[in-house]
Every structure is written in structure tokens, then in C-alpha cells.
Write a structure and sequence with these properties.
This is Protein HASTY 1. It holds the Pfam family Exportin-5. It comes from Urochloa decumbens. This protein is about 60% helix and about 0% strand. By secondary structure, it is an all-alpha fold. It is globular, with a radius of gyration of 34 Å.
Length: about 950
């Protein structure tokens, strides 16, 4: 070895060659020719140990082949086990006795050794299982790595324990819920195991002590080193760690391991988590909790949820567990701290007699925490809100177990509210829990609960005085900003309407678009139907005033604070940039329920900013959720009032607000409006939306493609950082709105709303002109057909449907494809010449242009299918499809004739699509990148490759030549 050190370069080169052999050479040959022994001897030398460890890492990933003698392979692997365990034990001993003497290079090597042992144990444990002593020693070393101070070593060991502890449940051999006793304690001392025991796997050697140790470490490491948490004896996860998955993935693995153990050893897991909770929670009556305490509480709560779900709602059949184990679990969970009882819904379903003590404990905890507006960290208010949220989660998970306790909860709420010890946001959470409880008892119970909860709000909400003072015009609304307490009272009223609509009624099986007719069963009346008449009018006036804040002349006459408040919140900026950092003071969005009045030290600007965002989001949600009631909403609400409130100032809306309006209101209106009310509702709503969006999107996309920067109307606000961040946010806003507008087109074309459109197969390829119908005949059974009758609404929608193919956003293209398909069906089935010309020329050209973008490769088959439908079903009635193809740069007349001949010989849509694909590639000289072979390419669709010159945009619009399609349609 002295000679080896003198020729370090030669030894390293030899190791590199050996490592290459290790990837394919038989393990038995590597042992036979002494390579395993040689590399093992190099593990003790700092110059060569990493290269030598790489050799073992490659081998340890190998699995026992079927074409060699098992004994020879197992002997070689046993030798590797011993080599690695020897070098590993040396490190673990030094690390335990003299941790300060170990430098970073040794930790790097130890991590490599640990990673190699994980691969070895995960793939080849069967090789040493007959040797009980060696197996137990190996598990003890992996346990030491799991407990190690260094998180890199702990993380590698985590992967091992996940693999080996999952095996019993897969093999259904050892772990059962019927008991926690393990034979491993005795088996560790045995020299050999029978073949039958080998089949049972590693679990035979895992003692209760090992299970408890793993759980104890897992609960402690549930925290992240964010500056609030003291690492103590453990190096906690931090963002500086490289080469690992992110913290959420890491913690998910921890929770998976906890669930595996809980399913195999439920009593041990229950006792461990309760012990952890008792340690981190401390005194429930302690009013002030440090950030470190709160982080530890969060980790313990996640651990509790994992344990409870694995035992009571997991793969184990708890109902078949023995009485002794059930009794143990009952006693353990009954004494747990109430702070974590929101995770115990499954437990309460099995033990409804424990509900009363749970409810009492939650109220005790709530009243033990003070109400304070001067706490800049919001720790106390966050804790109070968490307790109130626990009622919601318990109500949802415990099903009917809480019904007998509703009266007691209501009385306690009234008492606390009367004493001023319950904030409005907290009250809303408790009321929401009531709605969840009532939903399990039926519609009648819901109606009674809603009447009780909404009656006090009705009296305030319908008062003329506040509406006259604050909602007559935008100036009145700005006067409300001076009364912070009333302002937030209005906010909580609106948010409770939203929650009432979400939590009441029958459960929906899916969120698919509904048919144009009423979806409710005969005689069914939604519990909220009777309340819409008084809820909606003030809400619409409120939204109208908010929208007007962005319009002239009110926009210029506002104070500096209000102008600044109209810009984005920091939370919105972070969301657009993909940043998930913790918000600081003044950046909390109102949806978290923390805001009731302006807090001490918070700027008025942030107070107004959060209120505007919260009212807009919840107000839109109320309208969208009300639309799902179908006829109960659309026949009682005034369409003119809704249209005025939403559309009066749509042209001055920022993209983020317009996207929210479309997503939360317009799309539900399209989905749920009865067919006989389309004229009353949808025309007046869709026309201003489409007109404005088409113009705004065209301008912004042209700017992005020409100049490299999207020009959007949104007020970004103060943004620390480079101009690049602003550009990223602007492009994200543009793409989000584009996709949402295309989602409207997708909804318009949904099959449920177009049941009257015949399939192309029904129409036949050679449909006769005298069999075609007027467009009016489709107006009552096809929303797309109805839309085409209203040129003012249809024209901007059609422009969007062709322009989207020139915008570099594949998600938007995906959403617009069904609308294009519906247009083709209408053009084929109707005698509308303008629509046929638009589809045959403009749409056909645009789809082909869309195939030139590589980002559209994912839906290239659908786009080719649309091209095939246009050509097959319209080329005999209109010359435009052939003209479009002949205008492509590399096509010849004989190519088109050959294509026609090929189509005539097959009726298979699949074969016709293949012919169309081949023709398009030929006609464009293989320039359609979406049609190129992209089987393994990951396409990123939300990033633009931008050329900063003015020549970045190519392609002509559909209107530049001739008077076919859009141009003729606009003149009718």
C-alpha cells in the first residue's frame, strides 16, 4: 500500500477502470479475481476511499441474478456487507466519542458509505438474513445513522428504513394489527435462521425498541431549521442542503415511515406521539408561545395525523383488532392534549363518547389564549384560529358524532361572543363547523342552522343606512376605509356567505359541466335559495364600487394610500414569482381569518390592500357558487344588476382581477345557466368580456412577441429586485389570463351544453347542401350555436380562437381545442356560409401555424385531427381548405391529388389523420416542429424564448388577405 500511495494517479486510474467493470461484470467474478478485497483495503486510505466506495456503490445496486449459483453470489455479498460494516463501525465509534475530531471530508466519505449500505440493504438483505447476528448488527448501524447528528447521514438511512419496513405489509407475513410483540429480541442472538424465517424478511429482527427509536427521531426531525428552531443535538433540515429533495418531500417520507410503523405497531406509535406532544406542548394555560414552540407543535400535529390515519383509516382493519389493543389505544388517545384533537376525527367516529371531552378541551384552550392586536408575530391569534379550525376538521371527519353536542357548542359560542372573547373571524370558523355538522343530518337540519346563523347577518346586511353611506358611489366606499372595524365586519359577512354556500346543500359527485337544464332533483330546494334575495343586492353594489376604484374620474382623486393599496400584495407577487417564503408583517392575506380590525403597527395601505383582495375574491366566489344552484339563482336574481356590477368597468380591470372574475364567476355562469335564459344572462356578460379580452390579449401578446416584454395593466407595486422579476410577473399574468379566457371557450363547447350538435360520423363526409340546417335550429340545444347567432359576442371569441395558435402557450391551445371542434361541427352541419368560410380558411390556417410551435407537440394529434375534419368534411363545399394547403411552401398539385386519393381509399379516421400528418410535414418541408418525434422531450410551455429585436414575430394574421371568414362575418 505504501507503493500504491507513491503512485496515486495510477491507482486512481485503475479504480476508475474497475468501477466501469462493476456496472456489468458478474459479482462472482469480481470476488473471484480479488477486486472486492482490493477495493475494500483501499477504503482506509483518504486518497482513494471515495473512488473505492463508488465501486461498492455500483455493486450494491445489483440484485441476485437468476443464472448463477446463489451460494456464490450470497458469499460475495456477505463479504461486501462485512467490509462496509467494518469501515462504518469505525466512523460511528469515532463520531460518537469524538465528534469534533471529524472533518468535512470524513463526513463526505461517511455519507458515501451510508448511501452504499442503503443500496446494499435495500437490494440484498436476503444474502445475510440467515446470519442473525450480522443482520442485527447491520440494522443497529443503520439505526445509528438514522439517529446521527448530521442530517445527510440520517436522510440516507431514512430511505433504507422506508424500504425494509414496508416489506412486511407487502408480503403479508409478519406485521399484524393483532399485537405488538416481536420475536426479534431473541432472534438477534441466533446464528442461523431457517429458510422459512428468511422469507419473512427483516421485520423478524426489528425490535420494539428500534420502532420506538425511529419514531422518536422522526418526530424530532419534523422541523425545519428556519431560524426559529434551535437545532439542539440534531442538524435540522435547511435550504443550504444540496443534492436532496426539498423539505416537503423529505417530510413526506418521514410521515410515510411513521404511517408504516403505526400500521404495524399501533400501540407503540400511539404512545410515542402522545409522549412527543406532551414534551412540545407544555402548559396549555401558558399564554405566550415562542416561535420554536409553535414550529414544534406543527411538527407534532403532523405526526399525530399520520399515526391516527394509519391506525383508524389506514390499510389495517381496525375493527378486527383484539380488545386489549383497542383498550390501550383508547386510554392513550383520551388523555392527549386538546391542541391536537383536530387530527382525531377518525378516532371520534369509533368513540363518540369521547366527543364531549374533546369539545370542552378545545374551548378551554381557546379561552386560555388572549386576544391581542399588538402581537406583531400573530402567534396567539394563529393559535386561536387553529383551535377554531379544529372544529371544522373534527366535524368533517367525525361525521354524526358531533350532532348531539351542537346545542352545547352554540351556547358556548354565544356566551364567548357576548363577553367579547370571540373574534368575528373565529366565530365564522365555528359557524362553518356547524354547517358541516348539519350537512350530515340532512337538508332540513341545514335550513334550520342557516336560519339561525344568517338571521343576525340579515339584519345588519340589509340596513339601508350603511349602503347609502358607503355604496352609493366609490367615494362613499373610500369613506368606509376610515372605519376599519366596520370594514372588516363587512368582509367577514361576505366570507361567511361564501362558506355557507360551500358547506350547504347536497354533496356534488363531480365538478363537470352541467346540462343547460336544472340539475336538481324534482322538488329539491337548496337551503341557501331563500337567502339569495337579500344577500345579492348589497353585494353587487359593493363589487360595483370596488371595480369603479380603477376607473376615471375616481382613480385620480384618491389618496396616495388608496392608490398604493390597489397594487399587488406581497403574497400575490410571491405567487407569481413562484416564491413560497414566509410572509412578514403587513403581508398576511385576509383569507387566513386573522384580520378583524387594523392591527397595531400595520399600515393603512396594507389594511385596505388586503381588504380589497379579500372582498373581491369572496364576492366573486359567492356569485359563482350561487350560480351552481341553477334555476334558484338565475330566475330570482336580476341579470341587469349582475351585468352592471361586473361589466361596467371591465375595460379598466387589471389582468389578475379579470382572471379571477372569469374563473370564479363567468365560467360557473356558463356552466349552470338554464338554456332558456342564455339570452338574458350570457350574451350581456360574454360580449364585453370577449371584446375587451381579445383586444387586451392581442396587444400584450404582440408586445411580448415583438419587444420581448408583455405589457399588462396590473400595478405591480414596490418590488425589490431586478427588472427581470417584473418581466416574469407580467408574462405570468398574461399567460394566466390567456388560459382563463380559453377556459371560457372550453366551457362553451362542453358536450353537456351542446347536446344538439350531431357527430361528424352522423353527418357523413358527403353531406348534401339541401340537408343542412339553419344556425338558429341549434340555438336552443347548443351553446356554441347560440353564441354564433350573436355576432358582437361571436366575433371576438372567433378572433381569440385563431390568434391563440400564434401565442406561445400550449396550455391555452389545449383549452381552445374543444371550441374549435364545436365550430367545425357547426360549420359542417349548418348552412351558415360565413362560419364555414371562417373554419375552412382562417381556423385551418391558424391550426397549421400552431403546429409549427414545438410547445404544441403534446396535443399535436388533436390538432391534426381538427385539420383532418376540416378538410374531409368541408373541402367538397368550399375551396379554402385546398387553397390553404396549396399555399404551403413545399407542396405540389400532384401531392394534393395523391392525398385525396389516399383519403378516398380509407374511412378510418386514424388512417386519415396519419395521411394528413404526412402531407403537412411534406408541404412545410418538415418545419412543423410539433409533429417531429418528441417522445421523450419534456416541453416547457410557460417560458418564452424571446428575441429582443423587433423581428421576433413571424406569420400573418387571418385577416390580411382576402375577404373570407372573419372579415365577411364582421360585415354581416
Amino acid at each position: 500500500m505504501v507503493l500504491a500511495k507513491q503512485h496515486a494517479g495510477t491507482v486512481t486510474a485503475v479504480l476508475n477502470a474497475v468501477n466501469a467493470y462493476a456496472e456489468w461484470a458478474p459479482v462472482t467474478d469480481l470476488a473471484k479475481y480479488g477486486l472486492i478485497h482490493g477495493c475494500g483495503s483501499l477504503l482506509s486510505y483518504s486518497d482513494f476511499r471515495l473512488h473505492a466506495c463508488e465501486f461498492f456503490k455500483v455493486i450494491c445496486q445489483r440484485k441476485r441474478p437468476v443464472d448463477v449459483a446463489v451460494a456464490e453470489y450470497d458469499a460475495a455479498m456477505c463479504n461486501i456487507f462485512q467490509v462496509l460494516m467494518n469501515i462504518s463501525q469505525q466512523f460511528l465509534t469515532r463520531s460518537g466519542m469524538q465528534p469534533s475530531s471529524i472533518d468535512e471530508s470524513e463526513y463526505e466519505f461517511a455519507t458515501c458509505v451510508c448511501e452504499t449500505m442503503v443500496s446494499l440493504g435495500s437490494s440484498n438483505m436476503q444474502c445475510i438474513l440467515p446470519d442473525g447476528t450480522r443482520t442485527f448488527q447491520f440494522l443497529q448501524q443503520m439505526l445509528e445513522y438514522y439517529q446521527h447528528y448530521k442530517i445527510a447521514l440520517h436522510f440516507q438511512s431514512l430511505l433504507f428504513w422506508l424500504v425494509v419496513l414496508r416489506e412486511p405489509s407487502k408480503a403479508k407475513s409478519v406485521a399484524r394489527v393483532s399485537g405488538d410483540n416481536s420475536a426479534a429480541g431473541n432472534s438477534a442472538s441466533t446464528g442461523d435462521l431457517s429458510a422459512e424465517k428468511e422469507k419473512k424478511g427483516v421485520s423478524v429482527f426489528v425490535t420494539d425498541e428500534i420502532y420506538s427509536t425511529i419514531l422518536d427521531v422522526s418526530f424530532k426531525r419534523m422541523l425545519k431549521n428556519s431560524g426559529n428552531v434551535s437545532s439542539g443535538l440534531l442538524e435540522l433540515w435547511s435550504e443550504e442542503l444540496e443534492g436532496k429533495s426539498d423539505f416537503c418531500n423529505y417530510r413526506t417520507k418521514l410521515l410515510d415511515l411513521i404511517k408504516v410503523i403505526a400500521s404495524q405497531r399501533p400501540v407503540i406509535a400511539a404512545a410515542s406521539i402522545v409522549q412527543r406532544i406532551n414534551v412540545v406542548f407544555g402548559d396549555a394555560n401558558q399564554a405566550t408561545k415562542s416561535p420554536q414552540d409553535l414550529d414544534a407543535m406543527e411538527g407534532a400535529q403532523l405526526g399525530l395525523e399520520a399515526v391516527v390515519s394509519a391506525i383508524f383509516d389506514g390499510s389495517v382493519d381496525y375493527g378486527k383488532a383484539d380488545w386489549e389493543m383497542k383498550s390501550q389505544l383508547h386510554k392513550i388517545f383520551e388523555v392527549i392534549h386538546g391542541r391536537y384533537l383536530d387530527a382525531l376525527g377518525p378516532f371520534l367516529r369509533h368513540y363518540p363518547d369521547a366527543v364531549a371531552s374533546v369539545v370542552n378541551k378545545l374551548f378551554e384552550l381557546l379561552t386560555s389564549l388572549p386576544i391581542t392586536f399588538q402581537d406583531p408575530s400573530n402567534n396567539s391569534r394563529l393559535a386561536r384560529l387553529q383551535i377554531c379550525s379544529s372544529f371544522i376538521r373534527i366535524s368533517r371527519a367525525a361525521d354524526k358524532a358531533l350532532l348531539p353536542h351542537m346545542k352545547n357548542i352554540a351556547d358556548t359560542m354565544a356566551y364567548l361572543q357576548g363577553e367579547g372573547r370571540l373574534l368575528r373571524g373565529e366565530h365564522n370558523h365555528l359557524c362553518e363547523a356547524f354547517l358541516v355538522m348539519a350537512s350530515s343530518a340532512g337538508i332540513q337540519q341545514q335550513q334550520e342552522v342557516l336560519a339561525w346563523l344568517l338571521e343576525p347577518l340579515n339584519k345588519i346586511w340589509t340596513q339601508v343606512e350603511w349602503q347609502t353611506a358607503y355604496l352609493s358611489d366609490p367615494t362613499g366606499l373610500t369613506n368606509m376605509f376610515a372605519d376599519s372595524q366596520f370594514m372588516w365586519s363587512i368582509y367577514h359577512t361576505v366570507t361567511f356567505f361564501e362558506k355557507a354556500l360551500k358547506r350547504s346543500g347536497t354533496k356534488k359527485s363531480s365538478a363537470t359541466p352541467q346540462a343547460p337544464t336544472t340539475t336538481a332533483a324534482p322538488g329539491y330546494l337548496h337551503p341557501m335559495s331563500s337567502h339569495l334575495a337579500w344577500i345579492l343586492p348589497p353585494l353587487l353594489r359593493l363589487l360595483r364600487c370596488i371595480h369603479a376604484l380603477w376607473a376615471e374620474p375616481f382613480a385620480q382623486s384618491q389618496t396616495a394610500e388608496i392608490k398604493a393599496a390597489k397594487s399587488m400584495t406581497v403574497a400575490e407577487q410571491a405567487s407569481l414569482l413562484g416564491e413560497t417564503g414566509k410572509l412578514t408583517k403587513g403581508q398576511v392575506a385576509p383569507a387566513d381569518g386573522l384580520l378583524d380590525v387594523q392591527r397595531d403597527g400595520e399600515s393603512k395601505e396594507n389594511n385596505i390592500k388586503n381588504w380589497l383582495r379579500g372582498i373581491r375574491d369572496s364576492g366573486y366566489n359567492v356569485l359563482g357558487l350561487a350560480a351552481t344552484l341553477g334555476e334558484a339563482f338565475f330566475r330570482c336574481a336580476e341579470a341587469s344588476s349582475v351585468t352592471l356590477a361586473l361589466m361596467e368597468n371591465v375595460q379598466v380591470m387589471e389582468f389578475r382581477h379579470l382572471r379571477q372574475l372569469i374563473h370564479l364567476v363567468i365560467i360557473p355562469f356558463v356552466k349552470y345557466c338554464p338554456a332558456d335564459l342564455w339570452q338574458v344572462w350570457l350574451v350581456n356578460l360574454l360580449q364585453p368580456v370577449f371584446v375587451h379580452c381579445q383586444q387586451a390579449l392581442h396587444y400584450s401578446w404582440s408586445s411580448l412577441l415583438h419587444e420581448g416584454r408583455a405589457k399588462v395593466p396590473d400595478s405591480i407595486g414596490n418590488l425589490s429586485g431586478s427588472e427581470l422579476k417584473v418581466e416574469v410577473m407580467e408574462e405570468k399574468l398574461l399567460r394566466d389570463l390567456t388560459r382563463e379566457v380559453c377556459s371560457v371557450l372550453w366551457a362553451l363547447a362542453s358536450p353537456a351544453l351542446n347536446s344538439g350538435l350531431p357527430s361528424l360520423e352522423q353527418l357523413g363526409a358527403s353531406n348534401r347542401m339541401d340537408s343542412l340546417k339553419n344556425l338558429e335550429s341549434f340555438a336552443s340545444s347548443s351553446l356554441t350555436g347560440f353564441l354564433m347567432l350573436h355576432v358582437g359576442t361571436a366575433l371576438p371569441a372567433l378572433r381569440i380562437s385563431v390568434e391563440v395558435f400564434s401565442w406561445t402557450d400550449s396550455d391555452a391551445v389545449t383549452k381552445v381545442i374543444p371550441f374549435c371542434g364545436a365550430l367545425i361541427h357547426l360549420a359542417v352541419a349548418s348552412n351558415q356560409a360565413e362560419l364555414r368560410q371562417f373554419v375552412a380558411k382562417d381556423l385551418f390556417s391558424s391550426i397549421i401555424q400552431g403546429l409549427s410551435a414545438e410547445s404544441n407537440s403534446v396535443m399535436s394529434a388533436e390538432l391534426v385531427g381538427l385539420c383532418r375534419e376540416i378538410y374531409v368534411y368541408l373541402s367538397d363545399r368550399d375551396p379554402a381548405p385546398r387553397q390553404v394547403l396549396l399555399s404551403l411552401p413545399h407542396i405540389k398539385q400532384e401531392d394534393l391529388l395523391a392525398f385525396d386519393d389516399s383519403l378516398s381509399k380509407t374511412a378510418s379516421p386514424k388512417e386519415q389523420k396519419q395521411h394528413m400528418r404526412s402531407l403537412l410535414l411534406l408541404a412545410t418541408g418538415n418545419k412543423l416542429r410539433a409533429l417531429a418525434a418528441q417522445k421523450t422531450t419534456n416541453v416547457i410551455t410557460n417560458v418564452t424564448t424571446r428575441n429582443r429585436s423587433s423581428t421576433a414575430y413571424h406569420g400573418s394574421s387571418a385577416e390580411e388577405d382576402g375577404q373570407i371568414g372573419l372579415a365577411t362575418l364582421s360585415s354581416t
